[in-house]
Amino acid sequence: MKNKQDKNSVGDVIINIIVVIILIFVFIMTLNILLSNGKGYISMFGTSAIAVKTDSMNGDQADSFAQGDLIFIKILEGNEHTTERQNLQVGQIVVYISDDVDGDGRQDLISHRIVDTEVGADGTVMNLLVKGDNPMAIETTKISTAAVIGVYTGKISGLGNFFIFIHQPMGFGLVVVLPSVLIVVYCAYVVIKNIKDTKKATEKTVLTEEEKEKIRAEVIAEMNSKENGEK
């Protein structure tokens, strides 16, 4: 009996740990979707990243990346980063705002490498000439430094596919909605189970008190019987 109770306790602890992990995961995914909505990039805990949607940077450079990768960027938006944007060098990979690429009706973020710069009369960089690493990407695009929102710092291959997936209706349903529903069902099960266990424990306690009272009555009756017999 004791071994069975110990096994049940261990099982409950494991299940609770799994539920907590799922809750944290769902919270992070929901936060990711909310924070990246409208910006095009993920920004959490001081780190910003972009899920790569095209193969334009799939080249032979050490820092090239492919469609489906997750790239990390240092955000350079705002007036406080004006000097950093103007100090960008040829060879760096920048992220900038472009027209709709994937057909969803919204502006997209493009990540391309700087191949040349245009310097103004005062010596500051005014425009950047950027191009993808993919050998098929023959077009060079001119962008202003003001259009740059970030600079590439690193990547995780393949992870971008997951973030692209969870931003789709099916992905959101499977990764966020379904686990949330399962957790609600499990919590309801735990509440009902605890109510039943409490009721059983109360009934057992009441029954035990009744048994004690019966024993007391029997003892008293036996003692009275002995006293009467001695007399």
Report on this model:
The chain is an alpha+beta fold and 231 residues long. The chain has 2 domains: 2-24 and 179-230; 38-167, Ribbon (Umud Fragment, subunit A). 48% of the residues lie in helices and 23% in strands. It has 4 helices and 8 strands. The chain has helices spanning 2-36, 82-86, 159-166, 169-230; strands at 42-44, 47-51, 70-75, 93-98, 108-119, 125-131, 141-144, 148-156. It has an 8-stranded antiparallel beta sheet. Helix 1 (2-36) runs antiparallel to helix 4 (169-230). The radius of gyration is 33 Å and the shape is rod-shaped. The mean pLDDT is 78.
Question: Topology, pairings included?
Answer:
Layout: H1 2-36, E1 42-44, E2 47-51, E3 70-75, H2 82-86, E4 93-98, E5 108-119, E6 125-131, E7 141-144, E8 148-156, H3 159-166, H4 169-230
Antiparallel strand pairs: 1-2, 2-3, 3-8, 4-5, 4-8, 5-6, 6-7
Helix pairs in contact: 1-4
